[in-house]
From TrEMBL:
Protein name (Swiss-Prot/TrEMBL): Vesicle-associated membrane 722
Residue intervals passing through the bilayer: none
Main subcellular location of this protein, as a coarse class: membrane
Highest taxon of the lineage: Eukaryota
Keywords: Membrane
Membrane topology: Single-pass type IV membrane protein
Amino acid sequence: MGQQSLIYSFVARGTVILAEFTEFTGNFTSIASQCLQKLPATNNRFTYNCDGHTFNYLVEDGFTYCVVAVESVGRQIPMAFLERIKEDFTKKYSGGKAATAVANSLNREFGPKLKEQMQYCVDHPEEINKLAKVKAQVSEVKGVMMENIEKVKCI
């Protein structure tokens, strides 16, 4: 997996991008921003494909986390990146200045974290894949347990 598999990321509140990072040039920044304007505000995950890239979004509690990746990288690594960034961002800014920050005002503070996590996810795909498998197993076990609880309630 090459250096260029994750190429651009940002964190936004509503439609205002608070921090972003890329080492590349291209129209992907404007496409990502245009998609941001059209995303539903509901908590969810979204992926759009365009020009050999995926535009991956995680929307949660009024904040949107985005990463643009080359299509060949799949969805697992971009989604793992978004989860990691959400966790970092929430820890650092929960109930703090992210609620009132103006456009790009967190670039200096949080831009390096975006870069660091992008690099980590690109450099450690096997760890990301293992983690995703474990999460899937936990989710499956949870589903079975919930089903069993429902069955017990019906008795």
